[in-house]
Amino acid sequence: MEEKKISLIFLGQTQVGKTTLLFRMTNTELPTSINATIGVDFSSRIVSRDGCPYKVLIWDTAGQEAYAKIARTFLKKADGVFFVYDVTSRDSLFRVDQWIKDLNEAVEGQVPSILIGNKTDKPNRAISKEEAREFAREKGFNYFECSGLLNNGDIEDAFNTMIDKIYPKIKNQNQPAGPKPIEGPPKKSSC
Ligand SMILES: Nc1nc2c(ncn2[C@@H]2O[C@H](COP(=O)(O)OP(=O)(O)OP(=O)(O)O)[C@@H](O)[C@H]2O)c(=O)[nH]1
Ligand SMILES: [Mg+2]
User: Which residues of 163-174 are buried (b: 16+ CB within 10 A; e: fewer)?
Assistant: First the structure.
């Protein structure tokens, strides 16, 4: 049986570390050097909830502005969005604000969203944890911080929180329509 799918997307300014975080979230070995993403890329990972497997597709968009239009077309398909900024760059948080406006224009209602502050290993922070938390709280997002480079911080927490936020919506999707047939005891596995 094919697993149900969950689509997540990374959005954020170029160089903030989206591809690095994608490698970490999907337990893929990090290459010695990472090129700027061209267009859009993806990787996947299987999670399970209530004994059922779900295939999580994580779309990695290119932060370079030339590709912003492509990234925008992926917004509508996302079940959840990771907005990434670099804690040493106020500009990159400002770019997140712009992406949020794009998302609100593209989609009705709230899409489960998480703000991730990356590069916490760097000494020259421009945005404090408190400010970022407040920014996220105002938007109704959760906030997590990490270093994709060192693979530490809240990377796995951000992923799990996202799945938990999406799961209630997704678990009853794609079920066969109509009344349930009356038959013997319920089957144990009804994924
Ligand atoms: N110091 C530090 N550097 C990082 C961290 N995460 C990523 N980098 C570096 O930042 C650079 C950009 O990382 P990418 O993951 O390619 O950034 P991106 O957001 O995918 O960039 P685009 O594909 O252009 O949108 C690379 O040189 C990474 O090694 C981090 O947590 N700390
Ligand atoms: Mg990239």
Answer: bebbbeebeeee
Q: Tell how far the Cα of 149 is from the centroid of ligand 2, in angstroms.
A: 13
How many beta carbons lie within 10 A of that of residue 162, not counting itself? 24
Q: Is the minimum distance from the CB of 147 to ligand 1 under 6 angstroms?
A: yes
Half-sphere exposure of 79 (CA within 13 A, CB side): 22
User: Which has the closest alpha carbon to 21: 84, 108, 102, 105?
Assistant: 84
The domains found in the chain, sorted by start residue, are: 5-173 (3.40.50.300)
Which of the 8 DSSP states describes residue 171? T
Pairing of strands 4-11, 52-61: parallel
Using the mean position of ligand 1's atoms as its centre, give its distance from the Cα of residue 18 in Å: 7
Given a cut of 70, is residue 116 above it in pLDDT?
yes
Atom of ligand 1 nearest to the CA of 146: 31
3-state secondary structure labels for all residues of 74-113: HHCCCCEEEEEEECCCHHHHHHHHHHHHHHHHHCCCCCCE
Length of the chain equals 191
- Residue 42's pLDDT band, with cuts at 50, 70 and 90, is very high
Does the CB atom of residue 63 touch ligand 1 within 6 A? yes
Q: Are 144 and 161 in contact (CB under 8 A)?
A: yes
According to DSSP, residue 122 is labeled S
> Cβ atoms within 10 A of the Cβ of 34, count?
15
pTM: 0.92
